[in-house]
Design a protein that fits this description.
This protein is an alpha/beta fold. The protein has a single domain, classed as Udp-n-acetylmuramoylalanyl-d-glutamate--2,6- Diaminopimelate Ligase, Chain: A, domain 1 (3-Layer(aba) Sandwich), CATH 3.40.1390.20. The protein is 38% helix and 16% strand. It has helices at residues 3-9, 35-39, 55-64, 79-88, 99-109, and strands at residues 13-16, 29-31, 47-50, 68-71, 92-94. It has a five-stranded mixed sheet, sandwiched between helices. The two termini are 12 Å apart.
């Protein structure tokens, strides 16, 4: 499913995305604040849903080839995290939904 559709499903505010990634697909969601757990998952281009607002979440997303990072719980990533998203080419968005509610909404959007 296209990132835009997934972001719409959780009323996400996109903080950074480049035109090359606007049409990107994600068919899996990883919901975790433990980046060591994310590194253990072997999925192709997942959407990383987290409430961790640090560079570590973006660096981990880049390593696992995540399609994007979605920050939950209404948290606003700091400017340096948005800058790193640009540098690494990882789309970044935020939602006011809790991580649980966002995961449910994303699951429904993906038909799971």
């Amino acid at each position: 499913m296209k990132l835009k559709s997934l972001f719409d499903a959780v009323q996400a505010h996109v903080l950074w995305i480049d035109p090359a990634h606007e049409g990107a697909d994600a068919i899996h969601v990883i919901a975790s604040d433990l980046m060591s757990d994310v590194l253990m998952v072997d999925l192709e281009h997942p959407l990383l849903l987290t409430s961790l607002v640090s560079d570590q979440s973006l660096r981990t997303a880049h390593v696992v080839g995540a399609a994007a990072v979605l920050v939950a719980n209404g948290k606003t990533p700091p400017a340096d995290m948005v800058d790193l998203a640009r540098q690494r080419g990882v789309p970044l968005a935020r939602t006011a939904l809790s991580k649980f509610d966002a995961a449910v909404a994303l699951g429904k959007a993906l038909g799971k």
